[in-house]
C-alpha cells in the first residue's frame, strides 16, 4: 500500500469509527442515549460571540460542510486553556469526497478583536494561531481561521485533550510506532513519562504524552507533532475496528462514554444523532476520495520557532476548499511520514 493510500485512509477510518459508535448509541435508546446525549456540552458562549460578529464573517457558500475540530489542553502551570490542535474537516456538497487540513499552532496570523465570554473585547494582534483560543475561546479561533482562509466555518467541535487518555484506556491501549524518544517531565513526579522508539502498546497516560509533547522530541517543532497526532488517530481507529468494539455492547459503552464526555459542540452538533447524521456519509468514501494535509508552512524569518504560510500554496488550498473543488495535487509538507526534516521550502525546485 502506498503512503498516500495509508494517509487517505485516516479520515475514512475515523469517520467509520465515529459513525459506527454514534449510530449504535442512537439505536440503544432510553437511558443509555440520554446519558451520552447529556455528556456533550453545548457551546452557547461561542454562538453568542459569533452572532455579535456575524457581519465580519465570510458568507456561506453552497452545501459543502466545514467543521473546525479543536483539541484543547489545560496543562499545569499555564493558568489557561489552549487549543494546540486545529483541523478543518471539509465534506463536499455531494458527500463524494472529504479532506482534513491541520493548522499549525505556531503559525503567525492576524487575530481579530474578539468578544470574550465576559462581554469584553480583546485587541487585534499578530500572534501565533493558538493564542486565539487563549484570548477568547472557540469563537476567536473560528474568526481567526475565517479571516486567514476566507472559509465559513459551519460547525465546530472542541475535544478536551484528556479525551485521548480516556478513549485509549477504554479500548485497552493503542499500539503505535514511536519514531523517536518522547519525554515529558512535569512538576508532578508521578506524571513524567518517557517513550522509547519502537512499536509498543500505549496506555491513556502515555498516549496523551505521545500526541501532546513537542519540546525535546526530534527538532521540537509543532509540524513534527502534527504528524504524530495523525498517526495516533489512524492507529486508534484501527484498534477500535479490529477489536470488534462496534459489535460488542460491553466494549462499546465505555468508548462512547469517553468520546462524548470530552466533547463541546455548537447547537447543530450537540447530540449523538446530529453527529452521526453529519459524519455517516464519510464512512463509505474510498481512499482516493479523502485527503489529509497540513497547511503548507515554513519558518518565519522574523519570529524564531514560528511559521508563516507558504503563500502561493496556502492560497490555492483555501481557494479549493472555498469552492468545494479537489485540493491541489502537491502541497508542501516539511516532514516525511517518519517525522524527519525535509529540505526547506526555498530549496525545493
UniProtKB/TrEMBL annotation:
Q: Which residues form the Cell envelope-related transcriptional attenuator domain?
A: 82-240
Q: Which keywords appear in this protein's UniProt record, sorted alphabetically?
A: Membrane, Transmembrane, Transmembrane helix
Q: Which domain of life is it from?
A: Bacteria
Annotated TM spans: 14-34
What PANTHER family does the database record attribute to this sequence? POLYISOPRENYL-TEICHOIC ACID--PEPTIDOGLYCAN TEICHOIC ACID TRANSFERASE TAGU (PTHR33392:SF6)
Q: Which family does it belong to?
A: Belongs to the LytR/CpsA/Psr (LCP) family.
Q: What is this protein called?
A: LCP family protein
Amino acid at each position: 500500500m502506498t503512503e498516500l493510500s495509508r494517509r487517505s485512509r485516516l479520515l475514512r477510518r475515523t469517520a467509520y469509527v465515529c459513525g459506527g459508535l454514534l449510530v449504535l448509541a442512537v439505536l440503544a435508546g432510553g437511558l443509555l442515549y440520554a446519558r451520552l446525549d447529556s455528556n456533550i456540552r453545548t457551546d452557547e458562549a461561542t454562538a453568542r460571540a459569533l452572532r455579535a460578529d456575524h457581519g465580519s464573517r465570510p458568507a456561506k457558500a453552497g452545501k459543502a460542510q466545514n467543521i473546525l475540530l479543536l483539541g484543547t489542553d489545560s496543562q499545569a502551570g499555564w493558568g489557561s486553556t489552549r487549543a494546540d490542535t486545529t483541523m478543518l474537516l471539509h465534506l463536499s456538497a455531494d458527500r463524494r469526497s472529504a479532506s482534513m487540513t491541520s493548522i499549525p499552532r505556531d503559525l503567525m496570523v492576524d487575530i481579530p478583536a474578539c468578544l470574550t465570554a465576559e462581554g469584553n473585547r480583546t485587541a487585534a494582534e499578530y500572534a501565533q494561531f493558538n493564542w486565539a483560543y487563549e484570548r477568547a475561546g472557540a469563537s476567536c479561533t473560528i474568526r481567526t481561521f475565517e479571516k486567514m482562509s476566507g472559509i465559513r466555518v459551519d460547525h465546530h467541535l472542541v475535544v478536551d485533550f484528556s479525551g485521548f487518555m480516556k478513549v485509549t484506556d477504554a479500548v485497552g491501549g493503542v499500539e503505535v510506532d514511536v519514531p523517536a524518544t518522547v519525554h515529558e517531565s512535569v512538576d508532578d513526579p508521578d506524571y513524567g513519562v518517557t517513550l522509547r522508539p519502537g512499536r509498543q502498546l500505549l496506555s491513556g497516560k502515555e498516549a496523551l504524552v505521545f500526541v501532546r509533547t513537542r519540546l525535546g522530541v526530534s527538532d521540537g517543532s509543532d509540524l513534527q507533532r502534527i504528524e504524530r497526532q495523525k498517526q495516533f488517530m489512524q492507529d486508534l481507529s484501527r484498534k477500535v475496528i479490529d477489536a470488534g468494539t462496534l459489535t460488542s455492547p460491553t466494549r462499546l459503552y465505555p468508548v462512547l462514554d469517553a468520546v462524548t464526555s470530552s466533547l463541546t459542540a455548537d447547537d447543530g452538533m450537540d447530540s449523538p444523532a446530529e453527529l452521526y447524521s453529519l459524519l455517516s456519509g464519510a464512512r463509505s468514501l474510498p481512499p482516493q476520495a479523502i485527503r489529509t494535509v497540513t497547511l503548507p508552512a515554513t519558518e518565519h524569518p522574523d519570529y524564531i520557532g514560528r511559521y508563516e504560510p507558504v503563500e502561493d500554496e496556502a492560497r490555492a488550498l483555501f481557494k479549493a476548499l472555498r469552492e468545494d473543488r479537489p485540493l491541489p495535487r502537491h502541497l508542501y509538507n516539511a516532514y516525511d511520514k517518519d517525522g524527519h526534516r525535509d529540505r526547506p521550502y526555498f530549496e525545493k525546485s
